[in-house]
Amino acid sequence: MPSCDRVPRPCTKDLVDAAHELDLRIPDRTPAAIYRLMRPHQWLKNGLVLAALVFSQRLFVARDAMLASVAFIAFCALSSAGYILNDIIDREADRLNPEKCDRPLARGDLSISTARAIAIALAATALILSLLLGPRFLAIALAYLALQVTYSIWAKGQVVIDVIAIAIGFVLRAFAGGVAIGVAVSPWLVFITFVLAMFLGLARRRHELIALGEAAGAHRGALSHYSVRLIDQMISIVAGATLVGYMIYTASAEVEAKLGTEHLYLTVPFVAFGILRYLYLIDQRNEGGDPARLLMRDRPLMLAVVLWILTDIVLLYF
Fold first, then answer.
1. Burial class of residue 176 in the structure, from the number of CB atoms within 10 Å of its CB (0-12 exposed, 13-18 middle, 19+ buried)
2. For residue 179, how many other CB atoms are within 10 A of its CB?
3. pLDDT value, residue 29
């Protein structure tokens, strides 16, 4: 776990703030700081943009694969722009967080003006790519960007609304993937995506409550309205809804007719293991603060996800 003790002495809160007010460079430690600022490990979440490509059985259609790849890149740029905006707004609170105080803006590794310019460049790049994919995709990209701004400025401080906003962001990713290749997004995909994202968001709030202790409310207003007991109850609901929803989806006659396979239920064990493994990690090891890093770090969880993807591809294409 990062420690705030690693923040260099010249970059204490007062000196960093004074430098930003005078628009002084501290000086920018690039490119490593810019790389961390964009949080590329979080781009794993944008893999959801490719879900429509896989489940519409167009994975090996070159044109659709190319369009989906452009959509994926656009959302990577959009999400990074959102992360930077959030870091700009939260930089003071992040200095008090033992896990976030190592972020570039909290440490003073980059100036605010540099971070702002990078965010604008990323957003502009994403919108140009979105325009190439058509007006409907552009509308979803703009909606996602507006959601990120709303979340950073207001929604993240509102109890329950904060988690719902995160879930809506995932749903927009799923819709964007379908629009990019011109296929309808299944209501099942929307529902399962929504409850799974709520599950991950609540797990993150639980981790923050435990990691920050009594200072949780000062770091983020919404945390003062949560308790570990309440979040555990919420997690039980959405985790159960995710698993049951996926099980019904794989056994649905409508899905069987659409996808041409009656064996999709064979993927249920991987999903069940993944959810239960994640519950184990957040309860017994107090993980869940960063789902993307946890996925890359925990081998059993990563193996379950890889086997789920491979099994889906085999059942849908061979």
1. buried
2. 25
3. 60
CA distance 213 to 271: 32
User: What pLDDT score does 94 carry?
Assistant: 86
Identify the H or E element spanning 178. Answer: helix 161-181
Q: Which residues are within 8 A (CB) of 268 and not within 5 positions of it... i.e. 6 or more apart?
A: 246, 247, 250
Please answer whether residues 120 and 145 qualify as being in contact, where contact means their C-beta atoms are separated by less than 8 angstroms. Answer: no
Cβ neighbours of 50 (radius 10 Å): 21
Q: Which of 291, 121, 305, 133 is nearest to 202 (CA)?
A: 291
Task: Retrieve residue 31's tokens.
Answer: 């490119």
Q: Extract the residue ranges of the chain whose pLDDT is less than 50.
A: 1-2, 5-13, 15-16, 18-26
**Around Cβ 314, how many Cβ atoms within 10 Å?**
13
176, 189 in Cβ contact below 8 A?
no
DSSP-assigned states of every residue in 106-123: HHTSS-HHHHHHHHHHHH
Q: Give the three-state DSSP class for 128.
A: helix
Cα 248 from Cα 102, distance rounded (Å): 43
CA distance 289 to 204: 5
What is the three-class DSSP state of 7? coil
Residue type, 69: S
Which among 39, 128, 37, 119 has a CA at the least distance from the CA of 81?
119
Predicted local distance difference test score (pLDDT) of residue 222: 85
Whole-angstrom Cα distance, residue 9 to residue 20?
16
Bond from prior residue into 8 cis (ω within 30 degrees of 0): no
Neighbours of 267 (CB within 10 A): 20
| Cα–Cα nearest to 166, from 137, 121, 196 | 196
Q: What pLDDT shows up at residue 7?
A: 43
Separation CA 42–CA 204 (nearest Å): 14
